[in-house]
Amino acid sequence: MDMEASQTNSENPNPNPNPNPSPTPIRNANSISSSSPVWPTIDGPLGLSEEDSMNYARRFYKFGFLLLPLLWAVNCFYFWPVLRHSRSFPRIYHYVVRSAIGFTVFTTLLSSWALTFSIGGTHLFGPVWDQLVMYNLADKLGLTNWS
Fold first, then answer.
1. Polar residues composition bias: which ranges (predicted)?
2. What's this model's pTM, rounded to 2 decimal places?
3. Contact 69, 104 (CB under 8 A)
């Protein structure tokens, strides 16, 4: 028996009793811990190719100037991997960053305008306030009297 044990030890230099050791994990491009994304959209492999993504990012950016700034927000959301990994998709990155800047500026302006009118009111604008607001328009046009 000692002879058989010495033969198996000389044939198998690895003292691991498991005859089929698991191979070391190989990191591929689709790995979560990968530093660069494979896909420019949040859809992953179900999404668009890089060329189509650039066309859509450009369209969302340009149509945002046609008083549709919500498209800038959609552009930032849909191309989130491009924002996170700026060096992976440099052609798309500029459109997405510009969309983020445009949406931030638009949101800031709209919020400041809305807060100025809702908080300021008569105290801020004085007697001009009655001409600026729309809720008394029905009274001015005589639309509140049903008789």
1. 27-37
2. 0.61
3. no
